[in-house]
Amino acid sequence: MKPDYAIDRGALDGVEAFLRVATRRSFRQAAADLGVTPSAISQTVRALEARIGIALLTRTTRSVGLTEAGERFFDRASPAFDEILAARDAARGLADRPCGLLRLAVPRSVVSLLLQPVLASFAQAFPEVVVEIAASEELVDLARDGFDAGIRLGEFVAADMVAVRLTPSLRYAIVASPAYLDRRGRPSRIQELRDHACVRMRRASGAFAPWRLRDDGQEVELAVDGPVVVNDFPTMLAAALGGVGLAQLPEPVAAQDLRAGRLEEVLPAYASTTLGVFLYHPGRRQVLPKLRAFIDHVRAHMATGA
Question: How far apart are CA 43 and CA 185, in angstroms?
Fold first, then answer.
């Protein structure tokens, strides 16, 4: 026989009314506490007794007492009901102010590009929020894996997600180390990329990501070849710095090394752009304060550059 796992409807109905009457020893005072009429309290408790199958209260015209069953029920139900109220208040607290655990799924490049500069200031501004960062290139299922939000380049955000822009559009730069360029030469046309060693990116799907360029205002996708394959931008950056070959990166990822001369950009006239970095989450209901506070904090940082 198949087990019956159904939850009785209204299993907790009348418990609060009974506990209040048992504490007050008065239907009238319990009714006043709960803002209902004495007759409503009485009917609610009688319905509870009917469901349980035994009287919990003894009633006279002058007093209210507990039966033996009522004593047992009160001793077990009272602390349990207090825990339910505490659980309600704990859950409600997440809607009242920024607090609790904020779990974010992000690619590794975003940690240094976007999160590292803001984590300390966010922790100081919102000490009741604990930020947990899972750095991975995998496109996780936020709801299934228990994440509040993810952060990705806009083109990798699923259409059914609520997307919040964190950065403007970002320029892609093709870069290489001076040593590699001295050794292999500097390409001057898109077609010459086929003759160069290029660091390739493998997507989570297993496919190689084509390089995106703009030629005469048109978006061009180019399949490149090379001796190294990576699955994230920090590793691609390290390969370029090591002289492996050309790499196509969001400009902010390579900006520091470009300024320091450790990398040089080639074919700047053909650079394309990405949509920018977005935070995304599945909920179309009200955003919890912890997530709203994080979004606003990151946006403020990006706007001021502080």
Answer: 90
pTM for this model (two decimals): 0.67
Distance, CA of 19 to CA of 48 (rounded, Å): 11
Q: Where are the domains of the chain?
A: 15-92, 100-168+276-304, 170-274
Burial of 212 (0-12, 13-18, 19+ CB in 10 A): middle
Closest Cα partner for 109 from 251, 244, 223?
Answer: 251
101 contact partners, CB below 8 Å, separation of at least 6: 129, 130, 132
Q: Where does 15-92 sit in CATH, by number? A: 1.10.10.10
Instruction: Tell me which fold the domain 100-168+276-304 belongs to.
Output: D-Maltodextrin-Binding Protein; domain 2 (3.40.190)
Nearest alpha carbon to residue 224 among 250, 192, 256, 254: 192
* Cβ atoms 196, 245 nearer than 8 A: yes
Q: Tell me which of 3.30.2170.10, 3.30.70.120, 3.40.50.2000, 3.40.190.290 is the CATH number of domain 170-274.
A: 3.40.190.290
Q: Could you read off the pLDDT of 250-274 as tens digits, one per residue?
A: 999 999 999 999 999 999 999 999 8
SS3 of residue 250 by DSSP: strand
